[in-house]
Amino acid sequence: MSTKGSMGSQIVTDPPKGTRDFPPEDMRMRTWLFNNFREVSRLFSFEEVDFPMVESEELYTRKAGEEIVGQLYNFEDKGGRKVALRPELTPSLARLVLQKGKAQVFPLKWFAIGQCWRYENMTRGRRREHYQWNMDIIGVPGVEAEAELLAAIVMFFERLGITSKDVGIKVSNRKVLQAVLEKYEIQADNFAPVCVIVDKLDKLPRDVIESELAKINVPSEAIDGILKALTLQSFDDLEALIGAESGAVGELKQLFALAEGYGIQDWLQFDASVVRGLAYYTGTVFEGFDKDRKLRAICGGGRYDRLLSTYGGLDTPACGFGFGDAVIVELLKEKKLLPKFPHVVDDVVMALEDSLKIKAAGVAAQLRKSGRVVELVIEKGKKMRW
Ligand SMILES: Nc1ccc(Br)nc1
């Protein structure tokens, strides 16, 4: 929105479409949320990292039809370089791991909180930016890594007063779908595109999914087999479909056993419909959801053992999650768990006469040196801030 200024010039008051300002109270809420992200990461012995907001576009030019790639906030810079506002943090993390190379002691346990962008036409009125908390473990091939990540997510929810009655985490493994595709002799390079398509099952009608799969030459009997497999929600049914000796069954059972150890089993449920929409997942995938089913996914992640090699490195086992700053706030509001964030001070110091202003400054300085938050009244407004 813009309004007329005193000299007739336009005053721009709104931020760009799809973006948010954070005025003081919103900023205090965001700081509280991020402090919880950081505290959980700290308790899990993760180290904070950060990356540029702008990355080379080629970091994201995957060809599996992902929405995240189709909505790149990309442009050409003044040097003619093709760049993009990052849509996610994982590729930057992979790039940094490769940059640091073997000089590091693995496993790496890194976390980041960063603003991520997408450019979609505003007809849907959706936001174009959000902040994501990511935790990633690099160098651990076993599901012990996923168990740590799931335990961190649960700790975060519990810190905010959210229980396993409010939120669940659906867990599956892309090796389920891989086994089904192998059964129908679907070529391996169709695996990622199939995952990206069937991830939309909860957003698009079944016939649209079927026609999208047919477009990439998945035969109709395979389509039926894939969609049936995605309805599985018990290990018995999974074993009946792909065999008890399959990798997916072993990994899932071990992950759920570890979850018992963490005491987070009540939060997890096997659900083969979880595929996630990123092409690079290769194993475990998971997604936090609200049990009232009013909101979009709260968080999500999985194992991506081959992402680093797509950037020229060696295959390196890796897994991680992304946790956005928007849906969680909607959930907290729904559950009446969002605290108030008033601006709090310990002391207000005010010179009742101009001759006392210097004295008042000294009093404020002493109180602040002792660690107290002091509002020194330097201008008597019509309405006192306090
Ligand atoms: N990847 C992504 C970026 C920005 C928003 Br809003 N949502 C998803």
TrEMBL record:
<protein>
    <recommendedName>
        <fullName>histidine--tRNA ligase</fullName>
        <ecNumber>6.1.1.21</ecNumber>
    </recommendedName>
</protein>
<keyword id="KW-0547">Nucleotide-binding</keyword>
<feature type="binding site">
    <location>
        <position position="276"/>
    </location>
    <ligand>
        <name>L-histidine</name>
    </ligand>
</feature>
<dbReference type="InterPro" id="IPR006195">
    <property type="entry name" value="aa-tRNA-synth_II"/>
</dbReference>
<dbReference type="InterPro" id="IPR045864">
    <property type="entry name" value="aa-tRNA-synth_II/BPL/LPL"/>
</dbReference>
<feature type="binding site">
    <location>
        <position position="132"/>
    </location>
    <ligand>
        <name>L-histidine</name>
    </ligand>
</feature>
<feature type="binding site">
    <location>
        <begin position="88"/>
        <end position="90"/>
    </location>
    <ligand>
        <name>L-histidine</name>
    </ligand>
</feature>
<feature type="compositionally biased region" description="Polar residues">
    <location>
        <begin position="1"/>
        <end position="12"/>
    </location>
</feature>
<keyword id="KW-0067">ATP-binding</keyword>
<dbReference type="InterPro" id="IPR041715">
    <property type="entry name" value="HisRS-like_core"/>
</dbReference>
<keyword id="KW-0030">Aminoacyl-tRNA synthetase</keyword>
<keyword id="KW-0648">Protein biosynthesis</keyword>
<dbReference type="GO" id="GO:0006427">
    <property type="term" value="P:histidyl-tRNA aminoacylation"/>
</dbReference>
<dbReference type="Pfam" id="PF13393">
    <property type="entry name" value="tRNA-synt_His"/>
</dbReference>
<dbReference type="GO" id="GO:0004821">
    <property type="term" value="F:histidine-tRNA ligase activity"/>
</dbReference>
<dbReference type="GO" id="GO:0005524">
    <property type="term" value="F:ATP binding"/>
</dbReference>
<feature type="binding site">
    <location>
        <position position="136"/>
    </location>
    <ligand>
        <name>L-histidine</name>
    </ligand>
</feature>
<keyword id="KW-0436">Ligase</keyword>
<feature type="region of interest" description="Disordered">
    <location>
        <begin position="1"/>
        <end position="22"/>
    </location>
</feature>
<dbReference type="GO" id="GO:0005737">
    <property type="term" value="C:cytoplasm"/>
</dbReference>
<feature type="binding site">
    <location>
        <position position="118"/>
    </location>
    <ligand>
        <name>L-histidine</name>
    </ligand>
</feature>
<dbReference type="InterPro" id="IPR015807">
    <property type="entry name" value="His-tRNA-ligase"/>
</dbReference>
<feature type="binding site">
    <location>
        <begin position="280"/>
        <end position="281"/>
    </location>
    <ligand>
        <name>L-histidine</name>
    </ligand>
</feature>
<feature type="domain" description="Aminoacyl-transfer RNA synthetases class-II family profile">
    <location>
        <begin position="18"/>
        <end position="339"/>
    </location>
</feature>
<dbReference type="InterPro" id="IPR004516">
    <property type="entry name" value="HisRS/HisZ"/>
</dbReference>
<comment type="similarity">
    <text>Belongs to the class-II aminoacyl-tRNA synthetase family.</text>
</comment>
